[in-house]
Structures are given as structure tokens and as C-alpha cells.
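Appendix C. Worked example: Iron complex transport system permease protein
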Amino acid sequence: MTAVESSRPTYAGLPGRSLLRFGPVSVQVRRRALLVATVTTVLLAAAVVLSLSLGTPYVAPADVLRSLSGAGTPYDLVVRDLRLPRIVLAATAGAAFGIAGTLIQSVARNPLASPDVIGITQGAGLAATVAITTGAAAVLVAPAALVGGLAAALLLLVLGARHGLAAQRFVLAGVAVAFALRALTEVVMLSADPIDGLRAQIWLIGTLAGRGWSETLWIALTLVVLLPVLAWAGWALNGTALDDDTARGIGLRPGARRLGLAATGVVLAATVTAQVGAVDFVALVAPQVARRLVRAERPPLVCAALVGALLLVLADLAGRRIFAPTQLPAGVLTAAIGGPYLMFLLVRRRRRSA
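Step 2, the predicted output written as C-alpha cells:
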């Protein structure tokens, strides 16, 4: 060992973590989180290939891989033009839902908090229903849903931020907003033309049918624009579990930090909902599954995103194949999974509080 090498400071490392160096930059990574991210990525890739294979016609996985590589097969039209856009949209939307759910649940310090529980999805749904039932052009439905989701989020932040986004107040305000917006949506649907009401109902269920690259592009652009903020959020989540006095004692600004994390989460959730409709429970379930796999108080955003992507790809595949040739919207399948899981969370919290 040279004199220069021996003079370098050594890094003992924290238990369960590894230090990764990229030139002058070094990052601590939980080894279990890295394992979970690797395994989930492999499962997601397998789910994508399976989803591209199953259907009419059936395409062998080897032909799917050859088609994706550009080698040229008789199934290029089916794989690359018909199925791939929908599956990529499912993966992108699921990842965004997973990130949004993690941010909102961390701010609220409540596993029950998700965009579809605290009113953001309902705000988007109300605005989309108004746009559909008033005869607005189809291209205006998604922007209207985005505005509705952001408006609901703004109302929620105003109601919840009066006392520093206190956990219980934030969630209760969100539940109240969600019930009010859902009731308004039903009033609008009942007073509209039956055909328009049915179209709005289909949008509210949440489906990926007939959607693809254009919706994926909007979600991907949002993720790219928010990437610096998400990088900050991954670090800032570490301070959300501290009480306000402790956080201020170590130089943090807990109110501003929670507001920034919550705003990022609701913008992301509103954007995704505007593109794919009200696909419920992915944002609720994905962070909790990732947290249990990682065995940490808060899941890394990458793990939550991968779990969310895997859930929505599998839900879309199940919706297409279980009752084929009839196709069920992905939102129906996620609700079938999320409903019992929500009951499990409620029962578990009740037992803990007893």
C-alpha cells in the first residue's frame, strides 16, 4: 500500500448498508433495498414479456424478444404497435402512482393516505365528468382532469397546512374532500345524458384500453421535470418521521419540507390520473408492499415505483385475460386487490390502538 493510499480516510459503513462510489460522488445504499429493487426489476421484465405474449394471437416469448430487439418477426405489428404502448403506459403510470403514494403517506404519516383516499382522484374525476357530460372535446378531458386534481390538492393543502400538515388533520381533511367531490360527481352524472354519463363512468373506473404512447409521454415528461425534486425528496423523506421540535433542533424546517413533499406527490398523482383515469389503490398498496419488502419505515422511491409498475402491469394483464374476450378495466382489478388490503390495514391499526 502506498503512502497516499494509507493516508485516505477509511469508511466503516453502517450496518446493512454499502457505499457506492461514482467518481467524486458516493452514495449509501441499503443492501436489502438494492436486493428488492433488483428482484422487482426482474419480475417486472418477466411480467412485461408475459403480457406481450398472452392474447389473440399468442406470441411465444422468444418471438416477443426478437420483435423487441428489432430482428423482425411476423408478430411485429401485434407486439410493438398494438400491445407494447399499453403495457409501457401501465408500467409508467404504476411507477408514478407508487412514488406519489410514498410521498403522500410519508407526509401524512399514515398508510391509509393515498391520492384516491384523500380526494385528489375524486377532484380529477369530477372535472373529467363535467368535461365529458358538457360535450367538451375529447382532447380536453385529460387537461380538465389535471386541473380538477390540482384544485382538489390545493384545497386539501390549504385545509391541512394550517397546523403544519399535521397527520390526522391532513388525512381527515382529505377524506372529507373526497366524499364531497364524489357526491358532486354523482350529481353531475345523474343529471347528464345517459350516454355521456356512461362515458364518464368508464373514465372513472380507470382503464388503459385505447391508450398508449401519447399518455405515456405526458407522464414521462412529468417525471423528468420532477426528477431533481424527486432526488431531493428521496433524501428529505428521512426527516418526515421526526417530531417538529426534534426536526427544528437539528436545523430542519419540517413544515416547508412536508409541504414540498406533499405538493410533489399530488402534482404527480393528478397528472397520472388525468391520463389513465381513476385507477384506485395502486398508490395505496405499492408503498406498503415496498416498505414491508425493504423492512424499513419508509420505502425508497425506486422500490415503490417498481412495485407500483409491477402491480399495474399485472392488473392490466389480468383484466385482459381472465374473462377474455371480455376485457375488464385495470381499475376494477386494482380495486379488487386494494379493497381487501385497505380492510387489512384498518383491522391492523385497530388492533394496535386497542
